[in-house]
Amino acid sequence: MTEPSLEQAPSAEDRRRLRRLPLFANAGDATVHDLLAFAPVSTIGRNQFAVREGTTPNSLLAVVGGRFALMTQTAGEQPQVIAMAGRGDLVMAASAISATPYPLTARAVEESRIASFPLATLWAAADRDHGFSADLARVVCGDWRSAIGQLKDYRLRSAPQRFAIHLVRLAAAAGQPHQGAAEVALIDDRKTLASLLGMTPENLSRTIAQFRERGVTVTGRAVTIADLAGLADFAGL
Amino acid sequence: MTEPSLEQAPSAEDRRRLRRLPLFANAGDATVHDLLAFAPVSTIGRNQFAVREGTTPNSLLAVVGGRFALMTQTAGEQPQVIAMAGRGDLVMAASAISATPYPLTARAVEESRIASFPLATLWAAADRDHGFSADLARVVCGDWRSAIGQLKDYRLRSAPQRFAIHLVRLAAAAGQPHQGAAEVALIDDRKTLASLLGMTPENLSRTIAQFRERGVTVTGRAVTIADLAGLADFAGL
DNA sequence: TTCTGCATTTGACTTGGATCAACGCGGAGT
DNA sequence: ACTCCGCGTTGATCCAAGTCAAATGCAGAA
Predict the structure, then answer these.
(1) pLDDT at A4 over 50
(2) CA A201, C1' D9: Å apart?
């Protein structure tokens, strides 16, 4: 159920945050100002849906805070998490920009806030501001790349390798050096993480147990990695 | 090995064909004329590469004739076909447009011809012609959608279901009615098709044998389907 | 036509990961 | 405090699909 969540104008803090989106990297200040003028921010409670698979977008959604699981939700089948969207990410920008139905549902895994740019204002801005329209294109290109990347991961690697990749990427995102020991924090609960990695929670648990003898210790969401390069090697680069 | 294939200006026939690309759906004639003026067409022999994974694009490639397998090609691992590109398709447009390294290799599965639009002229044209820049965005959005679609197929369905989907889509593409009996032709050889569907040739063969008792008869590349709706149902819509 | 080499099929076996079934543990409600 | 319940872990078993191996069919060369 998409809850009738309250909408409000973005706070000054929100505006500063939104201004820094990659979406606006090459956009003029005037463009951004115009867009923010009509971009209400809604609060989405834990486990509520910001987007339902199959619905047609009428605005581009940007995550201001919190975290969403982008997942399949076909009746009868158990849902599968395809990707996560966190602060600063756009929610399926390609669907919004081309006004085609969303292929996935976005569920808030924790209480989240989301800004919503009406498509009309977006298109108008893109028409006026070439930098911004280039930003739009760049964002979608990035989304394509990461989708293809996932497809490759899924076709080329085993479940434990995908978990290893996940850890290596978390370490990189946390600014850890690429060699030696590292500590990272898992962002998601076991069930969500397992589904994101294309495995069952049971199997993720077993993988974690196996990884202990590989120098990877997981306690709750805290992970200690003895040899990051070795882990990357196991993951297949 | 990317062979030094001969490049030539597009023929009148090529130009007509290229004009009809979705890429130019909303582009002005002047834009298209400019682009075609600097778009050499090369011939790529069977099993030669038009694009190597990891290389950075310097032009946008459009398939004028023939067919390419977009596949992984990591040393040591056996290649996996992620998608096919045929006449009228762009080859990994998102990579070209954003000038980021290609994530996949493009191998000609048959002798093919490919037009090549230099990025500089492309960007200049997009800056001048908003219709064209919208076309570019739309193409990339479509590519994202199909990548996500594949990800869903791969996560949600079994190998036989993916084969069934493939048949249903071929039937739809061939303009067959959505119900009753249908005849379609497989486009690819068994090995390529199996890899595209994320299975081994052996398993595809077995799947085909199983499908006989489901009213699907495959002889070489010719397929007879007794009940298309039933097949679609089996595939999971 | 016959030969030769590759593509496809069929068969036997292995295996990664899913499923089913307990069990332990920690936090919220009483 | 105690109970309940949802989360995560562990164990046992099953199954879809991969691997290895061999037979068959088919197309182009001689």
Answers:
(1) no
(2) 10
Q: Which nucleotide is nearest to A189 (CA to C1')?
A: D7
Shortest CA distance to A95 belongs to which of B119, B142, B234, B53?
Answer: B142
Chain-chain contact of B82 with A148 (C-beta, under 8 angstroms): yes
Residue written as token pair 């990272």: A184
Cβ A210 to strand C below 7 Å: no
Tokens 């790529």, residue located: B44
Instruction: For strand C, give the nucleotides within 7 A of a protein CB.
Output: 7-12, 16-21
List per-residue pLDDT tens for chain B, 237 residues long.
444 456 888 888 889 989 999 999 999 999 999 999 989 999 999 999 999 999 999 999 999 999 999 999 987 788 999 999 999 999 999 999 999 999 999 999 999 999 999 999 999 999 999 999 999 999 999 999 999 999 999 999 999 999 999 999 999 999 999 999 999 999 999 999 999 999 999 999 999 999 999 999 999 999 999 999 999 999 998
Q: What is the mean pLDDT of chain A?
A: 94
Residue of A nearest to B195 (CA): A155
Assess whether B205 (CB) lies less than 7 A from strand D.
no
CB contact under 8 A, B141 and A95: yes
Separation CA B198–CA B78 (nearest Å): 12
pLDDT at B76: 75
Q: Which A residues in the span 52-81 are in contact with B, Cβ-Cβ below 8 Å?
A: 72, 74, 77, 80
Q: Which helix (H) or strand (E) holds A107?
A: strand A105-108
Is the predicted pLDDT of residue A3 greater than 50, yes or no?
Answer: no
Quickly give B201 CA vs D19 C1' distance in Å: 12
Closest nucleotide (C1' vs CA) to A192 is D7
Measured in Å, how far apart are chain A's first and last C-alpha atoms?
41
From chain A, pick out residues whose CB is under 8 angstroms from the CB of B138: 98
Asked if strand C comes closer than 7 Å to B218 Cβ, the answer is yes
Q: What is the pLDDT of residues A177-195, one digit of tens each?
A: 999 999 999 999 999 999 9
Q: Which of A49, A54, A166, A32 is nearest to A112 (CA)?
A: A49
Q: Name the percent of chain A lying above pLDDT 70.
A: 97
